[in-house]
Protein 1
Amino acid sequence: QVQLVESGGGLVQAGDSLRLSCAASGRTFSSYTMGWFRQARGKEREFVATLRTGGSTAYAGSVKGRFTISRDNAKNTLYLQMNSLKPEDTAVYYCAAKIAWNIEYNYWGQGTQVTVSS
């Protein structure tokens, strides 16, 4: 069992940077594949980035080169560094966890709002 709490969202201007954090409970954080997702108003939730336990990453095409996912296992924290933000990045951002890379994410945070003004 793991509980996830996101923070770091806010209102920024286009071109700005923001770093989201996701604090995880439990002693086995390093065993989980972690991910970031987002949901814009009126749209389906979409994948943003994932970070497997071995360190491999994957990104949605819309954020590749601008966003970086990372983790600090000593702090039980997942990060999403977002650079060159665009208005279309506006959404609620969620972190998620799963115990194996080939299953669905089954632990979710409550989300943090990111708003990018033009």
Note: The radius of gyration is 13 Å.
Protein 2
Amino acid sequence: VQLQASGGGWVQSGGSLRLSCAASGRIFGSYVMAWFRQAPGKDRTFVGSLTWSGGDPGYEDSVKGRFTISRDIAKKAVYLQMNNLKPEDTAVYYCAAAVRLGAPYDSWGQGTQVTVSS
């Protein structure tokens, strides 16, 4: 699976952005599609995930209630809707895929920068 992320940008605190991840190749319902982020000087961390079949949504605690992952099977795309953004959300965001729950994420898109100003 090949992934390409887009949609990053600059936004003021409290604003919203929607990131997109276009996928190509064969994707099965068991695939897990995820978003990660890496802030300057920090490790890459998990943001949230969803199976390609639409189940098992999961989010990192700090984004619960603000971020939503969805997917469009027809468009072969995964989205990350980010609302009420905070300066600490500033990071490079990556989409990733694993063949099933519990498997390592072995497909990665290039990052897209999100900058939130206070």
Note: The chain has a mean pLDDT of 96.
